[in-house]
Specification:
Layout (H helix, E strand, L loop, with lengths): L14 H23 L6 H28 L14 H4 L5 H34 L2 E2 L9 H21 L2 H20 L3 E2 L1 H23 L4 H6 L9 H9 L4
Antiparallel strand pairs: 1-2
Helix pairs in contact: 1-2, 1-4, 2-4, 4-6, 5-7, 6-7
């Protein structure tokens, strides 16, 4: 969106796509290293299957997002459904609309599920090993405190753009239950556990603020009609900020 189109033509990968490709390689490697450091882990075969599912889901999402974001330059509006978009309505033959809906399904549903379920599973398994009986180890260094903000903002974007609030909140509740259970045993979170736990708490605050801010937006309400109303940042962008660009 920011860089000139001449640098990255619409029929070629964008700068964001290259970052996404790097993410698809770096993040699985980091998750493997993370799970290796945890005293509690899943069976090795299950860890490998989780990482494979993660890479497949993130790769599906990469292709879907690359096409969807490029469509913005043609007038596609993320705050509308696929069939309600003006540029989609005019497609001939009409069966092409089904293809775009299939692309949306792979991007927003299948890709997100295969990406985020293994991601949060590995995070939770890692979290189960972040307890210690030593009070002195339950302190976060200054560097970690400074990074809690960016970490929370990252999780906020994952939850809102990925529409995975249910997965996130169940993971958070499981973390809270585990903390209370371990506390009865005289165990407390170490610095790594505190970092993850505080990140999830601040993420919940950011999500609540985001929802309250857009609570009365009638157009976004129509796009997200369910009980859980959490608009996507991209939908907000195409509705309220694309004119500024």
């Amino acid at each position: 969106i920011i860089l000139p189109l001449e640098w990255f033509p619409l029929n070629k990968p964008s700068a964001g796509d290259y970052f996404h490709m790097a993410y698809n390689v770096i993040t699985p490697f980091l998750l493997l290293k993370l799970i290796e450091r945890s005293p509690k882990t899943l069976p090795r075969s299950m860890v490998y299957v989780s990482i494979i599912m993660f890479v497949m889901g993130a790769s599906i999402h990469l292709v879907g997002d690359s096409v969807n974001h490029r469509l913005i330059f043609s007038g596609y509006q993320h705050h509308l459904s696929v069939r309600e978009n003006p540029i989609i309505k005019n497609l001939k033959p009409e069966t092409l609309i089904d293809s775009f809906e299939l692309l949306y399904y792979y991007d927003e549903y299948l890709g997100h599920s295969m990406w985020y379920i293994p991601f949060f599973l590995i995070l939770f398994i890692y979290f189960t090993g972040c307890f210690t009986p030593v009070e002195e180890e339950s302190r976060m260094p200054v560097a970690a405190l400074l990074l809690v903000g960016p970490s929370s903002l990252y999780y906020w974007y994952l939850v809102t753009e990925g529409q995975i609030f249910i997965l996130y909140i169940f993971t958070f509740f499981a973390m809270m239950a585990l903390v209370m259970h371990q506390k009865r045993k005289g165990l407390v979170l170490d610095s790594n556990g505190l970092f993850l736990f505080y990140s999830f708490i601040i993420t919940l605050v950011l999500i609540a603020g985001w929802v309250v801010w857009l609570w009365n937006d009638k157009i976004l309400r129509k796009k997200y009609p369910g009980v859980i109303y959490i608009p996507e940042p991209w939908a907000f962008y195409t509705l309220h900020m694309s004119n500024l660009h």
